[in-house]
Hints:
Layout (H helix, E strand, L loop, with lengths): L1 H15 L5 H10 L6 H10 L3 E4 L5 E4 L8 H12 E7 L2 E6 L4 H10 L5 E6 L3 E6 L2 H14 L1
Antiparallel strand pairs: 1-2, 3-4, 4-6, 5-6
Helix pairs in contact: 4-5
Amino acid sequence: MIKEIRQRAILDIIAEKDIETQFDLIRELNARGVKSTQATVSRDIKELRLYKELTGDGLYRYAAPAADDPNHSERLRTIFKECLTSCICAENIVVIKTLPGLASAACSALDKMTVEDMAGSIAGDDTAFIAMLSKEGAKKLCKLINENT
């Protein structure tokens, strides 16, 4: 029940205001009496499939996909290609760098792409770690990313 209330509050907040960071979102949630941690908000952002879009002011804001948007996955792929700045392998971990604020969108895109051998992903503001099941899988993914961006 608390999760649903928090996620509804998140959707209301991003509909009312331009929210640029997770910490801005946490601050707005707190102002509404909804206490939350960064880790919880990060999971909510992923579950709600929020993405960042460019505002008219040249800043980024969280936005929610339309419920009936059949191109959601394709839009995430486009965001992924446009936000990535670098990709390297570190053993079985792929480290990607993105434009500020877009690492979560990049991970969401990868999650939707059903990448073979991918165990999971975690994102900060502009850096994401992709855990692969093997070193070979990490090298393959990194090569694929570098060839297509």
